[in-house]
Amino acid sequence: MLLLLREEEVQQSTMNKIPMVIMAAGVSSRMKRSSIPVGISKKLVKQSNMREKGFIQVGDGNQPIIFYIINNCIKAGIKDFYVILSYDSTQFQKYLRKIEKKLAINITFGFQDFYGKLKPIGTSDALFQLMNQFQELKKKRFLVCNSDNIYSTKAIRLLLNESIYNSMIAYNYKCLKFSEERLSSFSILKIKENFLISIIEKPNFETIKRFNMKFVSMNIFSFKGHQVYNYLKNCPINKERKEKEIATAIQNMISDNNNSMITFPLCEHVPDLTFKEDINTISKFLN
Tell me, which fold does domain 19-286 have in CATH? Predict the structure, then answer.
């Protein structure tokens, strides 16, 4: 019994050293363009037009959405974080330093260069730049997620517990409680024996119709740095969206290496902050 307890302690200690990378450098174009819903305060309208999505306050606690993500990570056993930011994120950085001390965690800032453009060129580029800034990520396992979705502790633990393969959560679309139209803004997944065999970013409706059981990515992954790095580095730019997307890097990786990414199907709602109307929806969920 004592030996089993010591094995569990070693496993937990190892898990605690696995960091979460939170991507928070986006310019929130769709949020800023979206219409103002009834019942939203002037303060939140201003935040939705000025702040990064992860820095927008939601719920009765008036905490930015990234706080709830970090809090669920802590519950899962994560203590170390890398947050990818834009260079002009001074207020966001001050807030993160404040909660770093309050929550007794470690937060390291990475910065995504926009290369002189008005917006970054995608999630794959963000992670590639971070790994160049912090070489240790090329040699270790780490988790990655968005800053505008509240992922459950259960989802985070599923990824933490998988040490053999790269992994991701495959969300059953019916459980997400989103409209059919919103499905086209996610990545749809083709899975065989729990392994990912195809990932299609922002599919059109003809593509969506071909899938009977719809599983989608909400951009939460576990990567082995040495396996994914070159695919991030060599990720091509999507001709339509002009971005380097993690989905593309993953597709190239699994095309070259069968059974290199395992999926964990999950049926649960994931609060998603894309439009102004989502602020009230997420606040109700949290409250």
Answer: Spore Coat Polysaccharide Biosynthesis Protein SpsA; Chain A (3.90.550)
